[in-house]
């Protein structure tokens, strides 16, 4: 089967983001700038994230991306389909595609003001305000071990500002959790994708026990399609 590259989201380590990675063959991690162990947070650049992702893909791989990593992977695929051969997107934060949807517009209106003030706050102050804006409920005070993750989140723009193609141009499977109107609207706004809903795990459908089988089936189909194309006479 084709190799698989996992792209994390906004502030999780590889192990936290992808507990299923160990059971998929030829799986590696694409670690974004500022996300290596003990590495300081860095300003975000969509181009730099994409370059790092494409480097991880080598001569070609299927990319599995979660949340904020989704629109990054989508543009990388649209730009370099010879490197990103397929996509499995788990609740991709492709907000730019559904910004007019009422639930998405409401989310943006709550969160963007916090992002606009991010540079004026400490990481602890920021993450409390950010979590409250995202969830609509008071945030708990983060422990000292959360400061690096908060600092990483603090340096990211709203995903609705990312350059996000509606059509990736490669086989794409979108998996949502059926719990939030925003992510269902995003999935509906995407073009030429398969869409599966795995309920019961909120924003982390990768924790659903059926994910491995679904992912393997998709990877096998993309692998077989690629092999058939390679053996088709010109």
Describe, in plain words, how this protein is organized in 3D.
The chain is α/β, with parallel strands linked by helices. 39% of the residues lie in helices and 13% in strands. It has eight helices and six strands. It has helices at residues 14-17, 46-57, 69-79, 102-116, 123-135, 147-154, 181-189, 211-230, and strands at 4-7, 27-30, 61-66, 84-90, 172-176, 194-197. Strand 5 (172-176), helix 7 (181-189) and strand 6 form a beta-alpha-beta unit.
Topology, pairings included?
Blueprint: E1 4-7, H1 14-17, E2 27-30, H2 46-57, E3 61-66, H3 69-79, E4 84-90, H4 102-116, H5 123-135, H6 147-154, E5 172-176, H7 181-189, E6 194-197, H8 211-230
Parallel strand pairs: 1-2, 1-3, 3-4, 4-5, 5-6
Helix pairs in contact: 2-3, 4-5, 5-6
Give a brief description:
Helices cover 39% and strands 13% of the residues. It contains eight helices and six strands, in the order βαβαβαβαααβαβα.
Radius of gyration, in angstroms, nearest whole number: 17 Å
Rough shape? globular
Number of helices: 8
Give the overall average pLDDT: 89
- Class from secondary-structure proportions: alpha/beta
> Biggest β-sheet, characterized?
6 strands, parallel
> Which sequence of strands runs across the widest sheet?
2-1-3-4-5-6
End-to-end Cα distance, whole Å, is 24 Å
Oligomer: single chain
């Amino acid at each position: 089967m084709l190799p698989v590259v996992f792209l994390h989201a906004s502030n999780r380590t590889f192990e936290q983001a992808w507990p299923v990675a160990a059971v998929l063959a030829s799986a590696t991690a694409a670690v974004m700038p500022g996300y290596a162990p003990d590495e300081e947070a860095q300003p975000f650049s969509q181009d730099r994230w994409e370059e790092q992702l494409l480097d991880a893909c080598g001569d070609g791989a299927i990319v599995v991306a979660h949340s904020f990593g989704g629109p990054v992977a989508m543009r990388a695929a649209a730009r370099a389909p010879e490197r990103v051969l397929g996509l499995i997107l788990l609740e991709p934060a492709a907000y730019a595609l559904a910004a007019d949807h009422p639930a998405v517009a409401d989310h943006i209106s709550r969160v963007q003001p916090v992002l606009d003030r991010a540079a004026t706050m400490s990481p602890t102050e920021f993450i409390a305000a950010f979590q409250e804006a995202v969830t609509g409920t008071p945030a708990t005070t983060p422990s000292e071990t959360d400061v690096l993750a908060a600092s990483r989140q603090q340096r990211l723009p709203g995903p609705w500002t990312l350059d996000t193609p509606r059509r990736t141009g490669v086989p794409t499977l979108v998996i949502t959790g059926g719990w939030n109107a925003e992510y269902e609207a995003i999935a509906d706004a995407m073009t030429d994708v398969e869409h599966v809903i795995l309920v019961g795990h909120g924003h982390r459908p990768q924790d659903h026990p059926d994910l491995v089988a679904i992912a393997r089936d998709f990877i096998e189909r993309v692998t077989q399609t690629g092999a058939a194309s390679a053996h088709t006479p010109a």
